[in-house]
Amino acid sequence: MSGSRVPMRWQIVAALLSIVPVLAQVRWSGTGCTDAGNMTLAMRFRGLPSPGETVEIGIAASPATAAYTLIVGASDGFWGTNALPLDLSFAGIPGCMLYASPDILLDSMPAVGFSPVPIPELPQLLGRSIHVQALVADPRIPRPTPVATSDLLTLTLLARPALTAELIHSGPTRVDTPPSWNANLPKLAADSTHLYAVHTHFTAGVAARSCTILRRLRTGGPWVAVATIRYPQQLPGIVMDTAQRLHLVFNCAAPAGDCFQGGAGGHRFYHLIFGTRDGSGALRFDTYLNYDEWPLANDGYLGLGTAADGTTIWSLADSSWSRIPQWWRSGSSYGTFPALVSSGSYLLYPVTAAQPAANRWLMYFGEFVPGAGNAYYRASTAYLWDPPASGARLLFRETHPSPAVGVNNAFPADVAWDERGVLHVLSYLLGTPDCTWLRRYDDGLASPPRLLPVGCAGNYAKLQIDRHGTLYVLAAGAGATVRLGVSHDRGESWTWADIPIVGVPAVGDARYIGMTPVKPYTSPALYDPDVLRVFFSGVDAAGGAQHSYYGELALPY
């Protein structure tokens, strides 16, 4: 956008911007004062604060508030010779503060809802901070000067985000089932030196199936195949515990021979633990601990997670479809929990999550109803172990009010805790105006959660919360994009954007699916709340899959 077309108010801001950028893109600070209805004024925001974007700004105020003035400033440190924040008592506005230099005043902003604020494409805005505050003038406010001010909203303007990706592996042929099938099961982990991933080549016949375990240095370089699982019944999962041991779970369906080197064969479930390293620091896969505490025939649908105290927990569906949860902490400390069952349905596709820095486990399942179609899930159900050695208790069961037979009515999407320990559960519910919903437990599970609409992100949408409390939902997009939902107000409102995927080779993939992100309960050494690190697959125009990818998306936004 040329300078002549940029509104003068933005040219003023660009000229006055601080030379020291703020790390967080969106943050709140300070405290507002009360308005005529004795409500504390607070800034609200949604959008991606990048040059060329249109963001939305609003306020939380008393219902009778009609309009406000928006103060836009280049500084939160000084206004001329006045240090900020500035106590406004001298102006007859006791209890209120000025936080932003009033370089631009936008009058008559409606107090109801959000107002669009376009950000021009000025290169000098990149990396700089803009400070925004609301001011309400209302004769009913009981102050000598009837004015109230809000807290401070600071926006740091960065370039539009992109998911940077690289090819992990290409299967021998195109298949209908992508390597990322079951995005609730972790397929990517890391220790201090290497990344590890699992690519599954899943054919209709068991004899041609294989899983390739790959690694590369965390600093970069090629992905190298280091081990193979043959005859998997379903996809395997991997996590890296806090002692940097890799846990691999899979269920074998070998018609003859072994599924894995060293004798792992037969129609059985296996939990293998790799902790021996070679001279480069990489894990060796020719030596391992074998904790196959369920050596009988099984139906798979595995779950897997690890915790801050070193415990790893997993589950499988046995041959009668009962859910068998198990745990391991050391060679002498492990066991099996009582089986979980749901009358008339099977508990499949679990998210197995551990609350960071707490002795609490959560398993979140889809309830599959047999005999009515392969996609008939009527409910999603969450169980808690608190502490893990105790029995499970039902946290909630979400079912569609009028489930349709033979379709996916409800499904577990994801689980995340914020840094205050507040649990957020993302779920899918068919046929509602917003098919993806967020359950937010604000008081440590003592009371029912807030149920918040997210948008129609789909049944395998994934959730992450950055260090500043911003919520992100990641879902498959069209073409070489992903859909990113962003909420700066703890899930109360959402902004959606199509984020480009860059770096993928031209190998015939038309779109990208199955985003399986690293979590604190899948790979603590790799997880960073301010970076989305994901395993995913590509599919061609006919829906065939052959390639798996690793991607990174830097946050916050």
Summary of the model, kept short:
By secondary structure, this protein is mostly beta strands. 2% of the residues lie in helices and 47% in strands. The chain has an 8-stranded mixed sheet with strand order 37-38-39-40-14-43-42-41, with no helix packed on it. Strands 1, 4, 9, 11, 12 and 13 form a 6-stranded antiparallel sheet that branches. A 4-stranded antiparallel sheet has the order 15-16-17-18, with no helix packed on it.
Query: Which consecutive residue ranges, at least 5 long each, have pLDDT under 50?
Result: 1-6, 15-23
The percent range for strand residues is: over 45%
Distance between the termini: 23 Å
Average pLDDT metric? 90
Q: How many helical elements?
A: 1
Radius of gyration: 26 Å
Share of helical residues: under 10%
Largest sheet: 8 strands, mixed
Secondary-structure class: mainly beta
- Largest beta sheet: strand ordering: 37-38-39-40-14-43-42-41
Q: Characterize the overall form.
A: elongated
Quantity of strands, as a count: 43
Q: What can you see in these coordinates?
A:
With 557 residues, the chain is an all-beta fold. Helix content is 2%, strand content 47%. Residues 1-6 and 15-23 have low confidence and may be disordered. An eight-stranded mixed sheet has the order 37-38-39-40-14-43-42-41, with no helix packed on it. Strands 1, 4, 9, 11, 12 and 13 form a six-stranded antiparallel sheet that branches. Strands 15-16-17-18 form a four-stranded antiparallel sheet, with no helix packed on it.
